[in-house]
Amino acid sequence: MARKKKKAGTLIILLVVLILMILLYFLVVNKNKEEVKTEDTISLSTIESDQVTEISYTMNGTTLTYRKSDDTWIDESDTKAPINQDNITNMLSEISSLTAEKMILEDAKDLSEYGLDKPALTINVTCDDETTFEFCIGDSLVVGSGYYAKLSDSNTVYAVEEGIYSAFNYTQTQMLAIEEFPTITTTNITSINVNKNGRDVFKADYDQSASDAGEYYAWKISKPYSTVQKGDPSQFDTYLGSYGSVTLSECVDYNSSDLSKYGLDKPSATIDLSYYTETTAESSTTDDSSTTDESNDSTSDTSDTTSASEDDTQEEQTIRTDYKLTLLVGDQNDDGEYYVQVIADGREYENAVYTIDSSTIETMLDITAYDFVYNVVAQIDIASLDTLTVKADGKTYELTVAPNPDKETEVKEDEETAKDTDTTEDADSTDDTDSTEDSEEVPEYLYYYNGSEVEETAFKELYEDITGITTTGNIKKEVSDTTPVYEFTFTRNSDEFEELHVTYLPYDGVNFYRVSINGEENFLVEKTAVDKVVKSISGFSSK
Questions:
Q1: Are 395 and 538 in contact (CB under 8 A)?
Q2: Which CATH number is 42-168 given?
Q3: Domain boundaries, the chain
Q4: What are the per-10-residue average pLDDT scores of the chain (543 residues)?
């Protein structure tokens, strides 16, 4: 009996499960109504792109209308506005090839289930034959990607891909064409000035004449320092690279009459750039260099002579064009992007306001002048040194480089010997080789410490330590004590070089000295580094 009851209970449970599964099946079918499918996509539009003369679409309660004028699309509400023609092309492409992935429901009674009672996007297209096409897009699909959509003259609901919605998902400002930031080759930048809150925090110019003369440190920094400082080329290369790939995000106002809305009536920062471009052009030159032999005039062919006398050649010419650009930086929008204006020659919309990514602007403005300074205190080549005088702890030390008189004598003797080489070249060649091998090379310079000749290598090692002292940063506080701790005077061996006076002055008494270079104080040096060099000078002896 118990066994029969157990079997009956099991059958009842199975029956209940079966009924529930059947109910669930019909519930899903009736609720989603998405089981009406076709194997192939459904064509919704047969419009050709070149037939369309007007596009109008409504999104978020705003209607935008664009009309074709000749071959250019213009904004019906502002015919002077620069319109992004690529956006229009994309819209036309989506409309002309509009298809549905499947039919959801034929003749739907309740469009609100699909967001089509109040469409998120309504598209109206007018063709050159006055025919129109209207299409509505509602909610996103419950399952998968895409949207519910319908034609205006039918309540049949379709599923369409995301592309049609994305093609029209633009506000009026987003439809404005962006006048690109000028293309700048960063190695062609010749000047930069960064001003923040009305103060020049960094100004540098590239000295082309110095570069042409072989000077490596051709960048000259004039602000914020009172005297021009040499710039480190590697630092400039890194920083200026940020100007070679600037992208303007959006044109928010192509002809702004109220810059205060963007904080551009009083910009928080201004960046001025000078740069140039180079183009190559071919020029024709004529070489009229041939002559005719008078004795052969009677037999010369006139046409051949004329052809030979005018030899046209093509030569490439590099044409340089200089430009100036000013970037004005205003407030930030809700997305953190900066409002900017780009002022430059040749730009069509001078009053246009753009947005630009915050990281781009912050890279340009996050600049510390000292990071670009070549920080060697005394870059004096030993080949140009006559005497270095060092005053330290009440004593004076002199390091001198002088031409070797024996070297001068040797040169004169070699010149006199060379006069006789033509008559004795063969006989003396073997003897000259032997004498050269036996003789020692005479040094060109002699080196002295406090008047006594010293060994060249030791002298150069000490001098390398002296000229290896570097600055560590800007002076950050005023110190009244002007009593020199150490004084270095570099006298040069030619009038074309100026003397260099370096004075190390008290600062904090622990970590740093102020350094005065030809009377100008801008930087700090490590106290221990200078003290160590001075100790080497005072205790120097030839090795």
A1: yes
A2: 2.60.40
A3: 42-168, 186-279+317-372, 382-411+442-538
A4: 56 74 64 47 91 96 96 95 96 94 94 96 96 96 94 95 96 93 94 97 96 92 94 95 94 94 97 95 60 46 49 78 96 97 90 96 96 95 96 97 80 55 51 52 93 96 97 95 97 92 97 96 97 97 66
